Amino acid sequence: MTAKMKGKPHRKATRSDWDKVRHNVMRWCLRVKLAQHYKEFGRLLLATKEKSIVEQSRKDEYWGAILLQDGETLMGENVLGRLLMELREALKKDTDEQLRFVPPLRIPNFSLYGEPIEAIGAPGTTVSSDEPQELGEQPPLL
Is residue 4 part of a domain? Predict the structure, then answer.
C-alpha cells in the first residue's frame, strides 16, 4: 500500500501498454524482492508450504480477491497471490540459488525515471548470459 501511495503522483506517466505488461512486471518485481532478501523472503515463502496465498483486498479483484458479503468467500483473479505461489515453486527447485540474479525484462522501454533497468543480483552473483531474458513468459493467470 505504501508503494501504491508513493506512485500515485506519477500515474500520468504510466505506460500506455501497462495492462499488457503488468503481469510480467509484477513477476519481475517479486523476483527482485527475492534476490535482494533471499534468505528471509525465501523462508517466508517456503513457510507457506502448499497453502494458497491470497491477497485479500477491499477493491482490487485483479491483483487480489475481494471478500464477498457472506464473509467467507473470496472472489477475484488473485494474480499477486498466484505469482507468489509460482515463485515459491521456483524457489523449491533453486538448489544453486540462481534466483539471486534477475535479468531485465525484454519489454520496450523497460526503464525507471528514463534510465534503463539493469540486471539485479546479489554481490558476487555471476551472469550466465549477456542477453536479457524473459521471466516466465506465460499467459496471464485467470
Answer: no
Strands 111-112 and 115-116: antiparallel
Does a structural domain hold residue 43? yes
Q: Beta 120-121 vs 101-102: how paired, if at all? A: antiparallel
Q: What are 134's three cell numbers?
A: 524473459
pLDDT, tens digit, 9 for 90 and up, residues 23-81: 999 999 999 999 999 999 999 999 999 999 999 999 999 999 999 999 999 999 999 99
Q: Which helix (H) or strand (E) holds 7?
A: helix 2-7
Domains in the chain: how many in total? 1
